[in-house]
Amino acid sequence: MRIGVVGLGFMGMTHIKAMQNVPRAQLAAVVSEDPKKLAGDLSGIGGNLGTSGETMDFSQVAKYSNIDGLLQDPTIDGVDLCLPTHLHAPLAIQALRAGKHVLVEKPMALDGEQCDRMMAEAEQAGKILMAAQVLRFWPCYVALRETLPRLGSFRSALFRRKCAGPAWAKWIRDKSLSGGGVFDLVIHDADMCVHLFGPPQMVSATGHEDLERGIDTVEAQLFYNDGFVATISGGWHHPKAYPFSMEYTVVCDGGTVDYSSAGREAMLYRADGEAEPLKLPPGDGFEAEIAYFAECGDLGKAPELCKPAESATAVKLTRILDEARFKNGEKVLCHF
Prior knowledge:
By secondary structure, the chain is an alpha/beta fold.
């Protein structure tokens, strides 16, 4: 698949680097309003994964200052949207109408209504739409998904994700553009809960929002009809110095699965008292994500491993959690 990457910020750079190791995906074009970035100078880019910007060779790819030129290029099969969240829906719809497959960074859109419109456009166009929910391809989370079916009933779950408030991107501190820190960050864990457990019936949450100070936190409970409760915790914890981390603990009748990027490898602690490391698939999550998108586009098959309907539910759920935290822990009925 010949892919054009729209947006040369942190995620655009990350996707391009991953694409270099995906035989099925070819970087064919880049789009940016910044001439410096179009020339390959991404040295000023920052992000929350401890990586820094670098210089890239774009001499063999088409370069466009806006998406219109890219969409008029008949050689482009797919568009990879790595832009601020408020641009996801309008540009995804524009790309789908132009006959391109679309990979759109998470969150899929700012709200559920926009997600629903995107899915309707993809169906009408007969093109692949996939949200880049990279945890579905991240080795430690793939291993979790593959281990849980043999452990029986779920009893409790915790997903936590923390980082510094981003000093490297002003738009993300504007809630009208990003949805806010909690929405942008814990969408990963909301999506994972939807993926593993389905949508909850009710939620409750507490937290604090001060985007200018780089603080935006949530402690949320997801309630399911069988009494199972999943907890999502995390957010921004002051700018710059605070380290990124992610973790999970899922308790089942057959054992507990546990992982933390801060120093605990992915393990299964079995009900018989024995422990074993989870079998992790090889490779990088971003590479696996892009390879899967390219495969779906080439074969014209729906992205069953990362369904846009589930990504849309994750957007709706995270929006509910974002609002519920200002209701002092009151239980809120979910409508998806």
